[in-house]
Specification:
With about 220 residues, the protein is α/β, with parallel strands linked by helices. It contains 9 helices and 7 strands; from the N terminus they run ααβαβαβαβββαβααα. Helix 3 links the parallel strand 1 and strand 2. The radius of gyration is 19 Å and the shape is elongated. Belongs to the class IV-like SAM-binding methyltransferase superfamily. RNA methyltransferase TrmH family.
């Protein structure tokens, strides 16, 4: 549970415009969909996908670092790491297990013929959408255990897109359809409070000193 007194204490430091902006953005945030990236070698691609998640309202990004331990490229992410939750996993299986425990179906992005096109994708189910490496795509582990498959329609000679481009296209399509639907896709009240607290902390310089002062006066 969020400490409402502590939240009020931090939000008193913020401007009214900043607090209003938080509420406006949170209206369009969702955990109905989440994105998972499997061992992406090019660091800027992970950062670019994070930026797409933030821009189009996906709150959770899951990064599997089984082979390539990487830091988020702050320059490419353009500050998105302050507003998107990044969950890290050491293996593909642990990520898929965690997604299922949260009630998500596993959706693999692949150009295979049995994949449905993005405009045909059923948005009613909570889904974790997995993207693979630039060179090899998703691992057999994800392909074999996936509950469904999705692809972008392409009419040229090239069979694939850069992962960050693919992610941006798919995220924009499914989140736009979600916001136009009657589904209960928005964050819960508790999730909104949690994000208000996180974002307030991320917005305040010298937050550790501010926190220490609060807990000194509110033991």
């Amino acid at each position: 549970m969020v400490d409402l007194d502590y939240l009020a204490y931090l939000e008193d430091i913020l401007t009214e415009n900043r607090k209003e902006r938080f509420l406006e953005v949170l209206k369009n945030r969702t955990n109905h969909f989440t994105i998972a990236m499997e061992d992406v070698f090019q660091l800027h691609n992970t950062s670019a996908v994070m930026r797409s998640c933030e821009v189009f309202g996906i709150q959770q990004l899951n990064v599997i670092e089984e082979k390539f331990g990487k830091r988020i490229d702050a320059e490419i992410a353009m500050g998105a790491q302050k507003w998107v939750d990044v969950n890290r996993f050491n293996s593909v299986q642990s990520c898929m297990d965690a997604m299922r425990e949260k009630g998500y179906q596993i959706i693999a992005t692949t150009p295979h013929n049995d994949s449905c096109l993005i405009h045909e994708f059923d948005i009613t189910k909570r889904s974790a959408i997995f993207f693979g490496t630039e060179r090899d795509g998703l691992s057999p582990e994800v392909i074999e255990q996936a509950d469904g498959y999705i692809k972008i329609p392409m009419v040229g000679f090239t069979e694939s897109l850069n992962i960050s481009v693919s992610a941006a296209i798919i995220i924009q399509d499914i989140t736009n359809r979600l916001r136009q639907s009657n589904l209960n896709w928005q964050l819960t009240e508790e999730e909104i409070l949690e994000k208000r607290l996180d974002w307030a902390r991320n917005s305040i310089k010298d937050i550790k000193r501010i926190e220490a002062r609060y807990y000194e006066t509110n033991p």
